[in-house]
Amino acid sequence: MASTSDIKNGLCIKYNNDIYKIIEFLHVKPGKGPAFVRTKLRSLTNGKVLDNTFSAGHKIEEVRVENHKFQFLYPEGDEFHFMNTETFEQITLNKNILDSPDLLKEGENVMVSINTETDLPLSVDMPASVILEVTYAEPGIKGNTATNATKSATVETGATVNVPLFINEGDKIKIDTTTGSYMERVKE
């Protein structure tokens, strides 16, 4: 058993007969009254996000997880196929277990958290950013760059991202996987 002082991002806990991963937390010590921890939890079974507040010193049941490096092979409907890079064992995961499945390119390496008690995959941690090629972008209109004007562009995985007007088809761009937003153009 752990307590609220052990809470950190990425910690997996059992709560309300489900397994949740902590995606955000904030220790709050008000001037009047007891301290508490405000958390944002993501269910690892259905992907729903829940806001919860634990009082200071509250006991939480921690779930032991191991992280393994997997390579994304290919999508098949709502199923995504991955291969362990050490044992070459393949697993299939549902689309809702992934944070941003539309930014996942074939051959991309991810970290998969596996429950040590049941040997079932719990979550997939994407890299912080991915580099993808733009397959379709409307042409930018000259003289329309006085403000931070953006246009939508489609990348090689099929995802749509808002990009600055100077991005054209064939450009490679870096995308933040947590927000799905454009970061920069990559020169090669």
In short:
The protein is an all-beta fold. It contains no helices and 16 strands. Strands 1-6-2-3-4-5 form a six-stranded antiparallel sheet, with no helix packed on it.
Characterization of this structure:
Pathway: Protein biosynthesis; polypeptide chain elongation. This protein has no helices and 16 strands. It has strands spanning 2-3, 12-15, 18-28, 36-43, 49-55, 59-62, 65-76, 79-84, 90-94, 109-115, 121-125, 129-137, 150-155, 160-164, 172-176, 181-186. The termini are far apart. 0% of the residues lie in helices and 54% in strands. The chain has 188 residues and is mostly beta strands. The model has no long low-confidence stretch (mean pLDDT 86). Strands 1-6-2-3-4-5 form a six-stranded antiparallel sheet, with no helix packed on it. A five-stranded antiparallel sheet has the order 9-8-7-10-11, with no helix packed on it. It has a five-stranded antiparallel sheet with strand order 14-13-12-15-16, with no helix packed on it.
Question: What is the global morphology?
Answer: flat
What summary fits the major beta sheet? 6 strands, antiparallel
Pairing-aware structural class of the strands and helices? Answer: mainly beta
Strand order of the largest sheet: 1-6-2-3-4-5
pLDDT < 50 runs, ≥5 residues? none
Count the helices. How many?
A: 0
Percent helix range: under 10%
Mean pLDDT: 86
Q: What value does the Rg take, in angstroms? A: 20 Å
Number of strands: 16
- Give the distance, in angstroms, between the N- and C-terminal Cα atoms: 50 Å
The string of secondary-structure elements, in order, is EEEEEEEEEEEEEEEE
Strand content: over 45%
Subcellular location: Cytoplasm
InterPro entries: Elong-fact-P_C, NA-bd_OB-fold, Rib_uL2_dom2, Transl_elong_fac_P/YeiP, Transl_elong_KOW-like, Transl_elong_P/YeiP_cen, Transl_elong_P/YeiP_CS, Transl_elongation_fac_P
GO molecular function: translation elongation factor activity
Protein name: Elongation factor P
